[in-house]
Every structure is written in C-alpha cells, then in structure tokens.
Amino acid sequence: MSRRYPAKAVSLAAIAVLGVGVAACSSSGSSSPKSSSSSSSGGSASSGFAKKNLELVVGTKSDDFYVTMECGAEAEAKALGAKLTVTGPADFSVSEQAPILNAVAASKPDALMVAPTDAKALNPELNRIQSAGTKIVFVDTSSSDTSLGVSRITSDNTGGGKIAADNLGSQIGGKGTVAVINVNPGISTTDARIAGFNAEMKAKYPNVKVLSVQYDNDSSATAASQVASDIAAHPDLAGVFATNVLSAQGAATGVQHAGKTGKVKVATFDAEPQQITFLKSNTIQLAVAQDPYQEGIDGVQQALNAANGKTVTATIGTPLVAITPANVNSANVQKYIYKSSC
C-alpha cells in the first residue's frame, strides 16, 4: 500500500524536517547523512538476496544533488552485494535522457532507479523497460503514470515550497513583489514546489504579488538575467524563490549584480556548496536542503526488494532541512550540504 508521511511543524530558525520517511536503516555503515527514521519497512534489504544488476539513471550527472544520490546508492549497493551502474545525461533534458533509457531497455537490468527529466515525455521508454521485466523505482522525480514503477522515493516538495513561502513572506514583511524562477514545466518535483509556494503565499500573504513563473531551462546564466530584469522592471521587487540548484545560483548572481544583496531576499531549494557560500554572505536567506544520499540508499533497498520478490514500500518520503543564516554552521546542518564527489 502506498503511504504518505505528514509534515512536522517546524521553526525556520532551526532545522526543519518534513515528510519524515519510513525507517530505512542502511547497512552501509556510512557516516553520510541519513534520516532519523530511515529504515525501509519492506523487510531487511540485506537478507537472502541473490546478486542483482541494478542501474541508476540520474537527472543529470553535473548536479551535486545527483552526485550525492549516487554516493548513497553506491555505498548501499556495495554493502548489499549488488552490481550498480550509474548513468545520466550531461544536461537535465528529455532529449538527452531518452537514449539512455533506451539503452537500459536493451540491457534489461533486474531493477532501474530513475529520476525522469519530465513527468510524461519519457513514459514510452519507461513502459518498454517495465514491460521487459525490469523493476522501476523512482528517485527524486517520477512519472505521472501511476502504473509505472513499484516505489517512489522523494522529498515533500509541496511542503518545501510552503516553507519557502513562509520564510520569504516573513522576511519581506508580507508585502511587495516576488519573482519565481523554475527549471522547466512538467517536472514532478519543481512543479510541486511551485504549487506549495503559491498556495501558501495566497493563504498567508495576500499583500504579496507573485509574478508569473519564469523558466530558465536549468541555466544559472538565464536565471541571473531573469532576476536582473525583474529587479529593473519592478522597483518593489522584494524577494525571489528559486526552485533548484542552478536556479538558485542564478538568482543569487542576479541579485548581486543588481547591487541588491540583502535587500531582495532569496529563498531557494537544494544545498550545494555555492548556495551555502551565498547564504553565508547574506545573498541567499534560505536553502531548503533535501537528503539525496538517503534517497540513493532507499532506492537500492527498494530495487533489491522488488528484484528479489520481497515486499516493496510504494512511497517513501525523505527529510527536508531548512538552512538559514541562524543554523548554517551547525554540525547537524553541515552534513546535509551536497557533495561534489563521493
């Protein structure tokens, strides 16, 4: 049965954890971050497994979020004796990811962990893979087709969008104009973040005008240009919400170049090292960190459960951590900053 986990009430002055996932205790013994309730309820992933071939197709190999996910998956696969191959496109795009999935369909691994770059466009490739007998586990992003996949592992993206809205709305005093920078339409995670952000702003901050979503095609340069244009066009621009790593980098750069550091508040998703540098310089005021390392661990466990005919947990929620200037130097927060290598 698919299960959802309710968000906990959080204070943005401290660590905010949403959608705490099912316990999925890693057997890897790694010191990298794991959720406090991180053990998969589908039975022990380390007992009674035949060696299986697993493949992880990330959204893009150039993103520290996916690098960190790969690190968690590799550690868990090694601990459990599975063979893991990791691939992914250079850019977060359907056209680059589709041929990789076609290659997976041809190689027929026992299980595929995948972060599709679009919720619908890759369904034909995913259907071919599943029809050939490969078990599919979605990590981070997922498909709109609920018949695809045996497990979906992701953060509470809607809840994270609400955290960003509450943080930004409070920082700008509940008034002014806010820009929203997203990657591309049709991505399950970032679309949910926008939905949560807009709903929370409308409900709690009626005097804040939220501009129409702008899409940067996962380009920090484009995001920087968009934010600079928004600052020029809207003298009352008080804040920016950026939905992923590159959007965040671009938003911060745009604010810097306009000479508005600390004046135009920036709330972001993800927590790669450059974002943390921007946070410490007060260019960014919020980074909503996910736990991709744990997603990698959970993905391997569920993939092995599925490949070996064991019970699979259909939905696993992983933590979110709100990183602010008040807690950025905390050891509990530092371990959630993404890795650029394992």
Number of strands: 13
**Poorly predicted tracts of residues:** 1-47
H/E series? EHEHEHEEHEHEEHEHEHEHEEH
Largest sheet: 7 strands, mixed
Strand content: 15-25%
Globally, the shape reads elongated
> What is the tally of helical segments?
10
CATH H level, superfamily name of one domain: Response regulator
CATH architecture field of one domain: 3-Layer(aba) Sandwich
Distance between the amino and carboxyl termini = 34 Å
Q: Rounded to an integer, what's the Rg over CA atoms?
A: 19 Å
Helix/strand class: alpha/beta
Question: What is the name of the CATH topology of one domain?
Answer: Rossmann fold
**Helix content bin:** 25-40%
Averaged pLDDT? 87
CATH class term of one domain: Alpha Beta
What does this protein look like?
With 342 residues, the chain is of the alpha/beta class. Helix content is 37%, strand content 17%. The chain has 10 helices and 13 strands. The strands form 2 sheets. Strands 6, 7, 8, 9, 10, 11 and 13 form a 7-stranded mixed beta sheet that branches.
Record keyword descriptors for this entry.
342 residues, alpha/beta, Rossmann fold, seven-stranded mixed beta sheet, six-stranded parallel beta sheet, disordered N terminus
